Amino acid sequence: MKLISPAFQHGQLIPVQYTCDGANHRPPLTISDVPKEARSLTLVVEDPDAPSKVFTHWLLYDLPPSTQHILEQEALLDGVEGVNDFGTRGYKGPCPPSGTHRYVFRLFALDTQLALPQGARKEDVLAKLKDHVLATAELVGTYARKHTT
Question: Which domains are seen in the chain, by residue range?
Answer without folding.
Answer: 2-144 (3.90.280.10)
